[in-house]
């Protein structure tokens, strides 16, 4: 693929969008990502203070100009009125589910080097997994590698104690920060999301205070603890994949035991080199996984790799194809 060719995530073809300014050379749109969660788990995922009685049944997931309001008039007690004063007829709804929304600003078609300005299907698969396995992330420190526009990190902030949304490049980091601010009502802890620059090709964390996305010493200390790493749609370039795994090893090879969940979409293309349908980026990813499983180091770190079955419930609306995969990498240490 030519570096100047543009690519477009099909996620954006099915989202309701509104124009919302520019980010560098790209026009931005704002999309509404609706998601359903089991009613019994609402308070686990969304802070109780934003789930008031006025919001839960009607407001979430609707356009602002259509949001019903609860009348305070005594003669209409129990009725729900719209902004024109008309009664809103209650429709049948599955009482076992509630719905909420995350707003994401993003670009549409971008060059391959700027794909972080879009949202890709692998991020939605990861978000489904997060919602289905909330207990895995509750009150944990989570590091997302390649956060892009920030969708997964924003959702994680609803359950995790601290989330580090990381990427590289001024434009994508600024966009991620903007989206985090746009959805700060979802976070369950104050300052739950921290946007930081993390270049996989660099050995060190940027601690230059002139960089608005620099790392604090306390941030780096947290990464040495029992954290969870996540990544979505970061496998599309062989050099980038190798840099990704080098960074993963540097973080996960420090005790204690750590986990990495990585979601991706296996993209098939006809290649002239093979004269057949192939997926070289995915094949290289598999090679890197195989190398991890036989890796040994003096400190006794070993890695296990397993594919997570994509049988967990789907809470976001997208086409979950057989080419979407979720993998778990776990580091362990000999006693």
From TrEMBL:
It comes from Lingula anatina (Brachiopod). InterPro entries: Methyltransf_16 (IPR019410), METTL22 (IPR038899), SAM-dependent_MTases_sf (IPR029063). SUPFAM superfamilies: S-adenosyl-L-methionine-dependent methyltransferases. Pfam families: Methyltransf_16. One of its GO terms (molecular function) is protein methyltransferase activity. GO terms for cellular component: nucleus. This is Methyltransferase-like protein 22.
């Amino acid at each position: 693929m030519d570096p100047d060719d543009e690519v477009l995530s099909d996620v954006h073809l099915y989202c309701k969008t509104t124009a919302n300014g520019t980010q560098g050379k790209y026009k931005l749109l704002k999309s509404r990502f609706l998601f359903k969660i089991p009613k019994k788990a609402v308070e686990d995922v969304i802070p109780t203070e934003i789930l008031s009685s006025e919001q839960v049944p009607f407001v979430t997931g609707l356009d602002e100009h259509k949001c019903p309001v609860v009348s305070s008039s005594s003669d209409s007690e129990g009725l729900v009125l719209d902004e024109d004063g008309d009664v809103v007829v209650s429709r049948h709804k599955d009482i076992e589910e509630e719905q909420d929304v995350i707003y994401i600003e993003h670009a549409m078609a971008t060059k391959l080097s700027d794909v972080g300005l879009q949202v890709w299907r692998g991020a939605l698969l990861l978000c489904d997994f997060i919602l289905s396995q909330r207990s895995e992330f509750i009150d944990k420190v989570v590091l997302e590698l390649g956060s892009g526009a920030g969708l997964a990190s924003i959702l994680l902030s609803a359950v995790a104690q601290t989330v580090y949304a990381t990427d590289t490049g001024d434009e994508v980091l600024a966009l991620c920060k903007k989206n985090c601010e746009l959805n700060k009502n979802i976070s369950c802890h104050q300052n739950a999301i921290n946007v930081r620059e993390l270049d996989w090709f660099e050995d060190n964390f940027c601690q230059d205070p002139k960089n608005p996305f620099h790392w604090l010493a306390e941030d780096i200390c947290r990464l040495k603890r029992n954290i969870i790493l996540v990544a979505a749609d970061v496998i599309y370039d062989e050099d980038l994949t190798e840099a990704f795994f080098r960074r993963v090893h540097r973080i996960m090879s420090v005790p204690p035991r750590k986990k990495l969940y990585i979601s991706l979409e296996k993209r098939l293309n006809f290649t002239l080199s093979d004269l057949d349908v192939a997926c070289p980026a995915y094949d290289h990813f598999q090679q890197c996984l195989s190398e991890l499983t036989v890796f040994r180091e003096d400190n006794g770190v070993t890695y296990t790799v397993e594919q997570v079955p994509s049988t967990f419930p789907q809470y976001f609306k997208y086409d979950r194809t057989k080419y979407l995969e979720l993998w778990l990498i776990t580091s362990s240490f000999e006693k």
